[in-house]
Sequence to fold (444 residues):
Amino acid sequence: MRRGKLLFIFALLLFGETGCATYTGLVKKIRKDIHRKRYESALKALDNSSLAKSEKDSLIYYLDKGTLLFLLKKYDQSIEYFQKAKERVDQLFATSVHKQAESFLSNDISLPYKGEDFERVLIHYYLALNYLMKGNLEDALVESRQVILYLNEINDRYKKKNVYHDDAFVRYLNGILFETDHEFNDSYVDYYHSYLAFKKIYTKFYHIHFPRRIYRDLKRLATFLGMNDDLRKWDRKCGCRIIPENEFINNKSEVILILETGFIPRKEEGKLDVVVGGRWVRIAFPVYKHDRPSKVKRGILIAGKFTARSILMEPLAEIAKQDLLDRGARIMARAAARIAIKHGIAEGLGAIAEKSKNQTVRLAAGLLSIAGHIAASASEKADIRGWYTLPHDIHLIRLLLDPGEYDLKLKLLGKHKRIIEVVDLGKVALSPGERIFRYYRAPY
Fold:
């Protein structure tokens, strides 16, 4: 009887679950709806999908739902789901040995989705963004401090072996938030970490231009804080003119616009034939085969006679591809080991068939042994799950203004400076020293 139960368990594990086609179809549907700004339709599709009922996919559900609610400007509900996502990440951080063993006998899709490191960082970003849209700087700063702790944790975990061990954009946004709250020392520290991340990671691995305006921010705060040695350093790097902090507080205002464009690429399944234990086997692994860059190359924020251009700060598509590349060898080694174990199980079943005196067990074990060898590779499925409502890129615009009332407009430019869209962002009334935040998603 016990052998019969074991055979049944092995059969379930060898012929593991699928469902990738359904998930891919859902992702396409939701992204198509976002592209058409049919957010309610996307939300309905998500709520009616298997993600809404799947415990192992619950993090993806929370992330996508939080994003869609944010796009609908339902900020309180969005906060609720991003908080659930944060709690789920904490729960999943220590994965049980049982679940890890199960994935070794089937595939990684059987495990709960934990999220990529950059996705976990962006949970804090979207929570802060929700709070900023509500005018709640205090709670946005809570997320700023929490994300610093998580970035430090990533640094400690990988000892800088992974490319993504700091986030220049999130650090820079933190610098703005701390500066807005007049926490100038903390602001300077985050601007400086942003500078280092851009220099050492983003320009080298993600191939973006270094945002030279960060020199102005460091120079401005170094002046204000009396950091003369640092000021000389930034002066050598950039002779740019700055608006002193005191002058900003008393005589200037600023609009910060966060512009998200396009969609992050989707993972697809790759296959590779390798020799494992003297046997040719086919392993499956996630890969980015197609990447459709955003049509939007630049945004220009306009307020009367004042204008400012966007700066690419977070090339999410490049971050995602490099992050997967970092883990590629580990994923493939795990897949090869998993197939070896499956073939070992199949050979063990063959031994049971030869030795058992029970005709039923012998027949069942023999059939499962044959099927097991066949299914060892066939049951290999790459884990292609992800947070696919994320943008392709995140840009930032800082527009310095005199206090007063303005009609804000955003001009989106494509290749060869072709105008794609002009967006009316409404009226703003700014007081001296005031800094306000605006957001726009261009899903194309």
